[in-house]
Amino acid sequence: MTILVTGATGNVGRQVVEHLVKRGADVRALVRDPSKAEFPAGVSVAQGDFLDVDSLRNAMSGVSTLFLLNAVVPDEFTQALIALNVARSAGIERIVYLSVIHADVYVNVPHFAGKFGVERMIEQMGFKATILRPAYFIQNDLMVKDVITGYGAYPMPIGPKGLAMIDVRDIAEIAALELLRREQSAEPLALERINLVGPETLTGTDIAAIWSDVLARPIHYGGDNTEGFEQNLKQFMPAWMAYDMRLMGERFITDGMLPEAGDLERLTKLLGRPLRSYRTFASETVGSA
Fold first, then answer.
1. Is 150 exposed, middle or buried (0-12, 13-18, 19+ CB in 10 A)?
2. Distance between first and last Cα of the chain
3. In this structure, are residues 58 and 46 in contact, taking their beta carbons and an 8 Å threshold?
């Protein structure tokens, strides 16, 4: 019984592999370049790519449970559908898919809409799956650490509604636990969705206040300018992706990313401990500088 982890060299996927190995699972990792893959002992490596169908067939041979994680790329939806079709042909029924919270609400944001399309296909194709729907990754803010510390401003367009930000380490551990729950079940378990949220719903002003406390100097929130946000992003990412992120920021401001009743309690019970806070992340970031 083998669990295949896709996106295995990324921040989430790599940690999922580590959690599974610690818990004694038989893990296979799908990677583009095996020479750059560093995994714990016992992990088998399959070279492949979502658009290379033969490599996917090889990687999924003998697999019982799949962790499906697709990068934000222009053809993300196509890649996911190819993976699902190959998985079904390989007889894989048990899946954990990393989607995004409010995928059915942020309908004009390309990578949200794509993930919601994948969710629909998982249902229509009859997979027994856990669809994980994480809110904003706390570690995304590592991208703006220098702006915060150097210019005294928190620039992300979080807005006044608030985001239930979650630590990537918690996402990875929950994903591993769900993979194991499905893998170890005598029969495939029914499809379900789980919102992955952090312990607090934070506004842009809230986050600036946390950084002010941690750095012991004033940090102001200046992130509601989504047009400026897009232009800044275009300096280090493709224009299409910068525009995608701008659209996401606009929905942050108008809709927020809000947990549903019982989400936090469910995750705390699943992990057996409290979820990590944004303040903890900020303190660790400053301490490691």
1. exposed
2. 42
3. yes
Q: For residue 206, how far is the Cα from the chain centroid?
A: 23
Tens digit of pLDDT for each residue in 33-73? Answer: 988 889 999 999 999 999 999 999 999 999 999 999 999 99
Cα–Cα distance, 26 to 156 (Å, whole number): 39
Provide the phi-psi class of 67: left if phi over 0, else alpha when psi is between -120 and 50, else beta.
Answer: beta
Residue owning tokens 């979502």: 50
Whether 260 and 201 have beta carbons less than 8 Å apart is answered as: no
Radius of gyration of the CA atoms of the chain, in A: 19
What three-state secondary structure class fits 129?
strand
Residue 56 DSSP class: H
| CA pair distance 257, 129, nearest whole angstrom | 23
pLDDT, mean of residues 89-103: 97
In the block, tokens 């706390």 appear at: 138
Amino acid identity, residue 72?
A: V
For β-strands 94-98 and 44-47, DSSP reports them as unpaired
Q: Model pTM?
A: 0.96
Given a contact cutoff of 8 angstroms between Cβ atoms, the answer to whether 16 and 175 are in contact is yes
Residue 41 tokens read as: 């002992």
The residue whose two tokens read 């962790």 is: 67
Q: How far apart are CA 253 and CA 236, in angstroms?
A: 23
